[in-house]
Design goal:
Largest sheet: 8 strands, parallel
Radius of gyration: 29 Å
Order of helices and strands: EEEHEHHHEHEHEHEHEHEHEEH
Oligomer: single chain
Shape: elongated
CATH class of the largest domain: Alpha Beta
Number of domains: 2
Strand order of the largest sheet: 5-4-3-10-9-8-7-6
Length: 348
C-alpha cells in the first residue's frame, strides 16, 4: 500500500507536507569546488530542501571513443560521451565538503549513484536517500545494490516503457525498499511543456501505489506548479548560479531567483489544493453582505404596484434574495417605501 509519508533526513515528504524541492547540481559546478559550494549556499538561500549530486566518473560511465553525439537537436552535438562525462562529473573527493556545507546550511545532500562502487562510497558519507536516474532505471544490479542499503529511493521514470518501470519497482520492493517515490520525467534536455504529460502523475500514483513527483527539464516553473496541483510531492530541477556562465546543463537550469520562485509557487499550489469544499467558508461570511438583493429604486406609495422601474436587484444583500424579484413584480406595497430601502416580506 502507498506510504503517505516518507522521512528523508529531517524532512517529511508526502501529500500532507509542502512539496520537497530538490536542486540538481549536476555538472553546473564547472569543475570548481568553490562554485559547487556556492551552488549549495544559493540553493539553501532559495529555500530548497535538498541538493543533489551525481556520483560517477567518466570511466564508470563509458569508454573513450565509445560514442560521439550526432543528434542535431542535442545541446551536446559533436561531443564525445567520455569527454562530456569527464567535464560534468563531480570529483568524489568533493562530496564530503559538499555534504558538510549542506548540513551547515540546513538542507539535505544526496546523490544519484551510477554504479555499485558509487553506492559504497555514498554509504560511507551517510547518504540519507538514493536517486535512480532515468537512464539507470533498467540497471537491475544497481537497483538491487541501492535497495540493500535500506534507504528511501527516488527513481526517475524517463525513457522507460511501462513494463520496464514495473520490473524496476518490483525489483526494488522485493529487495527491501519500503519507501519509494517515482518521478515523472521526460528525458530530453530541455523538455517542452508539450512532451511533459503531467496527467501521468495521478495515474502513476494509482498504478504503483507510491508517491509521485516530477523531475522537470522544462524552462521556468509552470510545469512544476501544475505537477503539484496534480499531486506531485517532490519536484527536482537542475540548478545553476548563472546560465550565462555556461556549464553542461546550464541551458535548462534554474537560476537562484527562479528557484526561489519555484519554492514559493509550488508551496502556494500545495496550500491551494485544500480539500473538497462547498458552502460558505468562515473567511467568506462577511463577503455575503455584497451579494445582491431587492431594493426600492424609487419612492413607492402604499398600495402602489411593484414594477421594473421602482424595484431593482442591487448590492448589498440586506433585502429579499434576487430569486423573489419576478414574484414581486405586479404585487402591491403594504406601506410607503423610500428609495434605497431593502425590501422584505413585511412591506409586500
Amino acid at each position: 500500500m502507498m506510504n503517505n509519508e516518507i522521512k528523508i533526513g529531517d524532512r517529511l515528504v508526502g501529500p500532507g507536507h509542502k512539496p520537497f524541492i530538490i536542486a540538481e547540481m549536476s555538472g553546473n559546478h564547472n569543475q570548481s569546488l568553490d562554485r559547487a559550494l556556492a551552488i549549495v549556499d544559493a540553493a539553501a538561500d532559495a529555500g530548497a530542501d535538498a541538493i543533489k549530486l551525481q556520483t560517477y566518473t567518466a570511466d564508470t560511465m563509458t569508454l573513450p571513443g565509445a560514442f560521439t553525439i550526432e543528434d542535431q537537436n542535442s545541446l551536446w552535438k559533436g561531443r564525445e560521451l567520455y569527454d562530456l562525462y569527464k567535464e560534468a562529473y563531480t570529483p568524489w573527493e568533493w562530496h564530503q565538503a559538499i555534504f558538510d556545507r549542506a548540513k551547515e546550511r540546513g538542507i539535505i545532500a544526496f546523490s544519484s549513484p551510477f554504479d555499485e562502487t558509487a553506492v559504497d562510497f555514498l554509504e560511507e558519507l551517510g547518504a540519507p536517500v538514493y536517486k535512480i536516474a532515468s537512464f539507470e532505471n533498467t540497471d537491475h544490479p544497481l537497483l538491487k545494490k541501492v535497495a540493500a542499503t535500506g534507504k528511501p529511493v527516488i527513481m526517475s521514470t524517463g525513457a522507460a516503457t511501462l513494463a520496464e518501470l514495473d520490473e524496476a519497482v518490483r525489483i526494488l520492493q522485493q529487495a527491501g525498499v519500503q519507501e519509494l517515490i517515482l518521478l515523472k520525467c521526460t528525458s530530453t534536455y530541455p523538455a517542452t511543456p508539450a512532451n511533459t504529460n503531467l496527467l501521468t502523475i495521478p495515474h502513476m500514483r494509482e498504478l504503483f501505489q507510491v508517491q509521485v513527483g516530477l523531475s522537470d527539464h522544462t524552462m521556468g516553473v509552470g510545469a512544476a506548479v501544475a505537477a503539484v496541483a496534480l499531486g506531485a510531492t517532490v519536484i527536482e530541477k537542475h540548478f545553476t548560479l548563472s546560465r550565462a556562465e555556461g556549464g553542461v546543463d546550464s541551458a535548462f537550469s534554474l537560476e537562484p531567483q527562479e528557484l526561489q520562485a519555484l519554492v514559493v509557487e509550488t508551496e502556494r499550489a500545495w496550500q491551494a489544493l485544500g480539500y473538497v469544499q462547498y458552502g460558505v467558508q468562515r473567511a467568506e461570511e462577511k463577503s455575503r453582505l455584497f451579494k445582491r438583493s431587492i431594493y426600492a429604486a424609487q419612492d413607492i406609495r402604499e398600495g402602489e404596484t411593484f414594477t421594473k422601474e421602482n424595484i431593482r436587484v442591487i448590492r448589498p444583500g440586506l433585502g429579499l434574495a434576487p430569486k423573489y424579484y419576478e414574484e414581486l413584480l405586479g404585487k402591491k406595497a403594504k406601506v410607503a417605501i423610500k428609495a434605497g430601502t431593502p425590501l422584505n416580506r413585511d412591506v409586500v
